[in-house]
Design brief:
Layout: H1 18-37, H2 44-51, H3 55-83, H4 85-102, H5 109-119, H6 125-136, H7 142-174, H8 179-204, H9 213-218, H10 231-236, H11 239-249, H12 252-269, H13 278-294, H14 299-314, H15 316-338, H16 343-364, H17 376-399, H18 405-419, H19 430-458
Helix pairs in contact: 1-4, 1-6, 1-7, 1-8, 3-4, 3-5, 3-6, 3-17, 4-5, 4-6, 4-8, 6-7, 6-17, 7-8, 7-13, 7-14, 7-16, 11-17, 12-13, 12-16, 12-17, 13-16, 14-15, 14-16, 15-16, 15-18
């Protein structure tokens, strides 16, 4: 979807324009979705003991949490092209909050798994976030806008590792709830926040810089929704979309997997936690695991910033070149982390690995907006679904009894390193390169004029 009046710069401290309101609301909504999506992960030690879950059952929970999101992201991308990101996000947040709160009613493995699968529906929020910022920002800064909004959203995966154990501890130690009631009440709070944000999204945002899709179509300023019929199949026929599908599975899929397993990984494979009681072990492991997600506050943005810089210097092929570099480094860093058995060495290697994972994600979505503008929602949905497909595939390694979790991480690192070479299949025609150059130059010129006018007004 291509619209006029796109912002040529990101003014982080402003909410006066529809572009910046969409930016801030989209990352915050994605943040809460991510927070709720993985809110149960740092509490799994408590759930495992209460429901006597086996390693295989935990593995199915890991797979289940990301499986439905594959289909949800495909659907939500198609939906954005038709009804716009505002209504899509509002509906997703309101509907998605139900299983987040409802998981508190789980009483055995089967009911817990069903709710865990249903919660994964809110993971489709990523596609709407990327869609909304893509239609709001010009080519010179769209990579940065996409990466920052998604990165700050993904930050929820780190914050939840830190905050949910604190919320749980508050219910147990301060309010006197049992551990069984404590984790359930903690998830209810997360779901309630998602629902409230869904209402806010409806009233505080609009679909595009020019207005809402419904109003624009009624005024004849935008083609009817039927004009985007066939865009999903059009996106499916582009081999580059499927290359990016696999590539995103090798970065975001890995991040989802680590969000699911990190807290338990540290508890089970490092002697440091053996002497701690449940509340202390959950809190400490969650704190360490949160470091991985907290890197999103800047790491994914770096991928977008460098993507825009490489694009400005070397065109669309430059964006792809950066994607190869950071994805290749991600694979090496993951293999390094998998070999760490001493906590003081594992933590810095986890941070290094996290840096390249999130830069790879930002670099991927600095390329996506240029694949097919007419089918932006469908392309974003398919590529986004690749992240979850990668997480589903990785989940089977962690449920296998014959493979230890460190070995599973080593295998994943080797696979990511190999997949990085797939970036060389993502190519653009000279016509597309020229169009991107002209759009970038026009956006930069518009930005310079805005700065000059602002300077003249001050003097």
């Amino acid at each position: 979807m291509d619209t006029a009046q796109k912002a040529t710069r990101i003014n982080l401290f402003s909410v006066s324009t529809p572009q910046m309101r969409a930016f801030h609301m989209s990352w915050f909504a994605f943040f809460l979705c991510f927070f709720a999506w993985f809110g149960i992960a740092p509490l799994m030690k408590v759930v495992r003991e209460e429901m006597s879950l086996t390693r295989e059952q935990i593995g199915w929970c890991i797979i289940g949490s990301v499986s439905i999101t594959v289909f949800a992201r495909l659907f939500i991308g198609w939906l954005c092209d038709r009804i716009g990101p505002r209504l899509a996000y509002t509906g997703l947040l309101l509907i998605g909050s139900i299983p987040v709160m409802g998981i508190g009613f789980a009483h055995d493995f089967t009911s817990f798994l069903l709710f865990r699968v249903a919660i994964g529906f809110i993971g489709a929020s990523f596609v709407i976030t990327q869609y909304h910022t893509s239609v709001m920002f010009a080519p010179n800064c769209v990579g940065t806008a996409n990466a920052t909004s998604a990165g700050w959203g993904n930050l929820g995966g780190g914050v939840t590792q830190l905050v949910m154990p604190m919320v749980f501890a508050g219910f147990v130690t301060l309010l006197g709830f049992s551990e069984s009631v404590g984790w359930r009440a903690s998830m209810f709070v997360a779901g309630l926040l998602c629902a409230a944000t869904g209402v806010a999204y409806y009233f505080l945002t609009q679909d595009s810089p020019a207005g809402n899709y419904k109003d624009l179509r009624a005024a004849g300023k935008m083609p009817e929704s039927k004009s985007v019929n066939g865009t999903f199949l059009e996106a499916c026929r582009d081999y580059r979309v499927w290359s990016l599908f696999v590539i995103y599975g090798a970065c975001f899929g890995i991040e989802l997997t680590i969000n699911n397993v990190a807290a338990l990984y540290f508890v089970d494979y490092f002697d440091h936690f053996k002497s701690m009681d449940t509340v202390q072990a959950v809190g400490t492991a969650g704190l360490i695991a949160s470091l991985f997600g907290l890197m999103n506050i800047f790491a994914r943005t770096l991928g977008g910033i460098f993507g825009d810089m490489f694009g400005e210097r070397w065109g669309l092929s430059g964006r792809v070149r950066l994607l190869f570099i950071v994805l290749f480094c991600e694979g090496l860093a993951l293999m390094l982390f998998s070999r760490m058995s001493i906590l003081t060495l594992a933590i810095p290697s986890l941070i290094l690995f996290s840096l390249f994972v999130q830069m790879s994600e930002g670099a991927t979505f600095s390329v996506v907006p240029f694949i097919n503008k007419r089918a932006l929602g469908s392309v974003s949905g398919i590529v986004g679904a690749g992240g979850n497909a990668g997480a589903v595939a990785a989940g089977f390694l962690f449920k296998a009894e014959v493979i230890t979790w460190p070995t599973a991480l080593l295998i994943l690192g080797a696979l990511v390193t190999c997949i990085s070479f797939l970036t060389f299949t993502v190519r653009f025609s000279e016509e597309a390169e020229q169009e991107a150059r002209e759009a970038t130059e026009a956006a930069l010129a518009d930005r310079r004029r805005t700065v000059e006018l602002a300077g003249a007004a001050v003097t």
